Each structure stands twice: as C-alpha cells, then as structure tokens.
Amino acid sequence: MRRLISTLALIPMAACTVATSDQTASASSEPAGTCRRDSLAQFVGQTASQELAARMLAASGARTIRWVPKGGVVTMDFNPSRLTVQLDGSNRVESANCG
Asked: E-strand spans in the chain?
C-alpha cells in the first residue's frame, strides 16, 4: 500500500516535465497537418472524387477532408487540420476552406 501511494504521488510531477527536441523550428510556425488555404482556389469547379480529395489534401497540408453537399449542415467547431469543401448541386467544388 505504501508503495502504491508513493507511485501515485509521482504522477502530478510527471505531468510537469518539459519535452525537448534537437530539431530547429521550421520557417512555418504551424504544426504538421495544419491546413493552408492559399492553394485551394485551383480546385473550384472540379467534380468531387477520391482522387480530387487526395490532391486537395496534398495541396492544403490538411489531415482530413469534409465534403459538404449543397444545403448540408455542419458543426461550427474549428479544426485547424481539416479541409471543408462546399459542393454545388452538381457535386462540384464551390469553395474550400480550412477548419
């Protein structure tokens, strides 16, 4: 029992440790997987497909994609690693934004 209490007493201290890295900071302050919208305009008007999704994810750096059909409802939570693509009635990209 005494050993268990001693072990449990160390848990809060472990949460206070600082992670270090030998790598230098990159030019961008954004963490890996953060969506960048600067190159997304090129996809407007293209038909939604798995191949298009892969190209959009690669261009934006996002980890996930969310397709929103015409009239679709989505949550308003912001996710910096998500790409949200609004589609028109013909299943073509109307707009693409991060979040």
From this structure: 64-68, 82-87, 93-98
> What pTM value is reported for the model?
0.67
pLDDT 10s digits, 19-75: 333 343 344 565 778 999 899 999 999 999 999 999 999 999 999 999 999 999 999
| Separation between Cα atoms, residue 81 and residue 84, nearest integer Å | 10
From the candidate CATH numbers 3.30.10.10, 3.10.50.40, 3.20.20.80, 3.30.300.30, the one assigned to the domain spanning 34-99: 3.30.10.10
How many whole angstroms separate alpha carbon 32 and alpha carbon 58?
Answer: 12
User: Is the Cβ–Cβ distance between 68 and 87 less than 8 Å?
Assistant: yes
